[in-house]
Specification:
By secondary structure, the protein is mainly alpha-helical. Helices cover 98% and strands 0% of the residues. The protein has 1 helix and no strands.
């Protein structure tokens, strides 16, 4: 009977030790997963930051090209209007003065 009780106690101790070991393993695994999650999160952030910076730079270059194209177009239009003014301004002045004198 004593042997049976000792066996039961030994089985219970062994089960408790295995349970404690399983809990410890679970906690260690959870910590490892947490660390891996942090590392992946950091890696994803670095990747996103790098690509965001690259995208931002390409957008700046693209917008600068657009601004330059608009400026060139505006300069061409201004030159065209300046040429028209130079060509016709005296005629317009003469017509306005003539119209005022006739009135």
């Amino acid at each position: 009977m004593k042997d049976l009780m000792d066996t039961i106690i030994n089985i219970d101790r062994s089960a408790n030790e295995k349970l404690k070991q399983a809990i410890q393993n679970k906690e260690e695994e959870m910590e490892r997963i947490k660390e891996k999650k942090k590392a992946l999160s950091k890696q994803i952030k670095e990747y996103a930051d790098t690509h965001l910076a690259s995208f931002e730079e390409s957008e700046k270059l693209s917008s600068q090209d657009g601004i330059l194209a608009i400026k060139n177009s505006a300069d061409e239009e201004r030159d065209h209007l300046d040429n028209i003014y130079e060509k016709y301004h005296q005629q317009w002045i003469d017509e306005i003065v003539s119209h005022i004198i006739k009135s």
